[in-house]
Amino acid sequence: MIKEQGKISLRSELKERFIEWCNYSTTHGIPNIARSDSKTVKLIWFVCLSAGSVYCFYSIVTILISFLSFGVLINIEVVEKAPIEFPAVTVCNLNPLDRRYSQSYIDEVLSKHNISHVKDTNRIDINPHTVKYLIKANILADKNLTWQQIRQFGFEIDFMLLTCFYNDKPCNASDFVWVYDFDFGNCFTFNSGNDQKGNKVPIRLMNEPGSDRSFKLELFLGDEFSQGIWMQQSGARVIVHNQSVEALIEAEGKELATNYQTDIGITRTFVSKLEYPYSNCVKNIYSPDGHKSEYFKAMFNILNMTTYRQKNCIRLCVQKFIKDSCGCVDPKLPNIYKSVPYCATLSLLNCISNSRIEYLKKSDECKECPLECDSVDYQLRTSKSRYPTMYYTNYLRYQTDLVSRFPLTTVVSDNHIQKNIVLLNVFYDDLATTYVHEIQEVSADALFGTIGGNLGLFIGMSLLSFVEILEILIEVVLICLKKRRNNNQLILVKPVKF
How crowded is residue 362: how many other Cβ atoms within 10 Å of its Cβ? Predict the structure, then answer.
């Protein structure tokens, strides 16, 4: 009997405390349900509270799903200021080898591979592209050649440079830094941010847009004697790029045709993406610790690159596939396998070609090359015009500095000049820089703000309302513990029979 009374007493006390809590709750609707004596009014308030709660929690679930989907919005901002940094400009001769200095070595390579009859146009039975690839591969594979000797096989900037002006001020060969490219041999970068000894120098600035305020470069690409007989075209190649990245000349460059002036108007865009979990891009692209990928680390530790680029990483993936398939490495691609020989025979070059085809069939072959989150892109607008005019051609024909670059046996004609020179003009179309930023579609602040707004609007709850819920839960626990302790102290006395 006493235990039953204890249970009733506990139930009554909990009910009494809960009603008291409802009367003083700051949540809208609950006090009205508790205080009203009319069942109809109680029902109305209950329906309103239930409807508000359902819609409120539906809105909260929706915003939570949106937050956890990690969507992004694109924010585009155009900022115009002057002066701004001028990009680096890398130029190459489409002909990678100067026959005046490399012909004897070329003959040795062709003879070694039994294609010495390549000079006989009536007996050509091999693709000129393959011949060129074979020669360049053998040059890199020859351990007896130093980089200085390899450089001497190609065209030097002193030989090619006719005139150079930056913002109407003369520039010269000392303003160019040498870089080597497998496809084009000697290439030269203007405004790289380094001098020829590798020391840092200030990056040049530009104050005005337009073709009159530009980088103008006039190049002599060599006469027919210095051009390779297996070359399929003549001209130059140019790439406009940021100083922080290595120029991918074959992938990103544009060709300059002889007998033309090529104008390149540029605009600059900075792109900034959000990293994980909003994307799989990598934010730290200047350190080998930026990503756990083997290729990522190798670009810094083995190739000595200063900036990660996904395009270079993918080239390493292709290189590994070729190495595993052919047992040698493609001299065209970055090489991190220093102990593996170059593919430098016709059969191995054929293996490279077949391996590239197989690689394209395996879409999931490379999974270790994340996209970089931050990049600088230059949009190029190109146009061409005839160059040089007859007047300027006659002027050049009497310039000793140019005429001396032709063989002594050559009678320099207008045609000789026109088909061997190019003029490049690079300038800003607009000094406005476009900044493309990814921003969170739903930020943490927006998430909590939306949740709080919905709770307050539909059911009148605030942060302190949750404290009230915590309060009643604590009191329920304390009441139960108190009753349990009191029940343990009760002594049941049985009646004594006489």
Answer: 10
pTM over 0.85: no
d(CA 97, CA 230): 11
Residue partners of 463: CB distance under 8 A and separation at least 6 = 452
Whole-angstrom distance, CA of residue 303 vs CA of residue 301: 6
Answer whether 263's CB lies under 8 Å from 423's CB: no
Measure the CA–CA gap between 427 and 169, rounded to whole angstroms: 14
Q: What distance in Å separates the CA atoms of residue 284 and residue 290, rounded to the nearest whole number?
A: 5
* Domain assignment of residue 446, yes or no: no
Residues in Cβ contact with 415 at an 8 Å cutoff, skipping those fewer than 6 apart = none
Residue 495 domain-assigned? no
324 three-state secondary structure: helix
Q: Are 404 and 485 within one domain? A: no
Instruction: Give the CATH number, domain containing residue 148.
Output: 2.60.470.10
Is 455 a domain residue? Answer: no
Q: Each residue of 231-286: pLDDT tens digit?
A: 678 899 999 999 988 888 888 889 999 999 999 999 999 999 999 999 989 999 99
Give the chain's domain count.
Answer: 2
